[in-house]
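PT: before anyone asks, these are the final sequences, not the draft ones from last week. 520 residues across everything. Please model them as a single complex and drop the result in this thread when it's through.
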Amino acid sequence: MASRPSDRPIIELSNVSKTFGDGQRTVVAIENVNLDIQPGEFVTLIGPSGCGKSTLFNIVAGLLDAEGSIRFGGKPHNGCDLLGKVAFMPQKDLLLPWRRVIDNAILPLQVEGMSRRQARAMADELFGEFGLAGFENHYPHQLSGGMRQRVALMRTFLFKRDLMLLDEPFGALDALTRMMMQRWLLDIWQRHNRTILFITHDVDEAIFLGDRVVVMTARPGSIKINRKIDLGRPRGAEITTSREFLEIKKELLAAVEEESMKSFRIAQQVP
Amino acid sequence: MKPSVWLPPLLVTALFLVCWEIFGHLPMGRVKVVPPVSAIAMDIIHNHQLLLRAMLHTLTEAMVGFAAGAAFGFLMGVLFAEVRILERMFFPVFIISQTIPVVAFGALVVIWFGNGMLSKVVIAFYLTFFPVTVHTHRGLLSVEQQRIDLLRSFAASRWTLFWRLRLPFALPTIMTSLILGSSLSLVGAIVGEWFGDTKGLGIMLVQAMYVENMVRLWSIIVACGVIGVGLYAVLRFVQTRWIWWGNET
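LR: through. Structure below.
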């Protein structure tokens, strides 16, 4: 799965930069980001907080304009014409409280113009796989945090796009739930054959999930390390204590810490 | 509902009415000021047809004005939320229009629209539309950017954003303004009748006041209260039944 052959990357970013504000008070959020993602790949992205991870995500989702070149599916794109082309899952589940679980999951399908009946039929078969069987007609406030996150993931899956962007989807969950969700996500990913770009600030999570871990520098963010993870799949929990895993972790942790210190010092210099 | 919910307030009300009744029967000719509950109840029973007709009249005025005001207020709120240039042009005018007490307009409205039902509808309308506009506007604009971004990432159109996100998000706020507007519309209809009318609770109040008919005054107050409570109960029912999501995230 990790080294599936492919003709060309699903998305190619070259020299992508983004500056906020104008006049004297400008902030360069990301600078000259170069990143290719192959179809079927699971790429995890880590970096110190405030390094522009979310900015990069918003650009790839089409929510923000940026300088530089973005090729999606081989064709050049700029800014908002990426809207509707990738499946985007923000940090918060952002479920709509007035919609039942199933109606939250089918929201993107309805936005695309599918009828409610048809969309519900499509969603129905996924409930077991997403661990939500029997909860179709509950409201979001009746669910636990882990379940809400699975509904949000299901919503992202139902928006059938080649590339999925997940922004710290498990950040708010407790450690146990989080580990279960990680294994479950790998399972789903392998069965559904999607491409995933996954933000996290947890090095373990990044290594455990990814075919490749990308480390971003402190602001202005760019790519510091692009590390292939040659751990076999399927991966079980025991892999996180293996020697290989720990070696990769040592290497990446050093890089992340170095950048975190930099962004900490930048923050200290601000008058 | 469980008895533990409705029993305590019911007991307090009963106790209050008993005290009132006793107070009304005390010597010192108090009947003129605070008639006993039983006297008011008898007056209501004997004149129920008269009161019902007046209630229906006033309620109709209030409801027509309320419906028109709510519809107009909602449309204005949507317009101001969606078209920011209109908001900057007209919103201040809306606010200023509400700083003038409606009573100051009363006589004028009756001269313009006659002393029939229309003038009271206009006053009820005037009192209703403003809170509905303000709440609709605020509710529609209070949707967090992240939620809008999520729907935009699904390539949602502006209409979809409005219909699937902004409007349902604003409904609880709009509902609050409808509850407020309904009681204001009732005040508008009653006060409007003071400027000239022949039927309705407002004009009955004025007539009872002139002849110092204390019992009748209280009967009319009860009738006004029944309408007010009724309107509130209906809207609260709608709110808890269909628009229950309030300020959850």
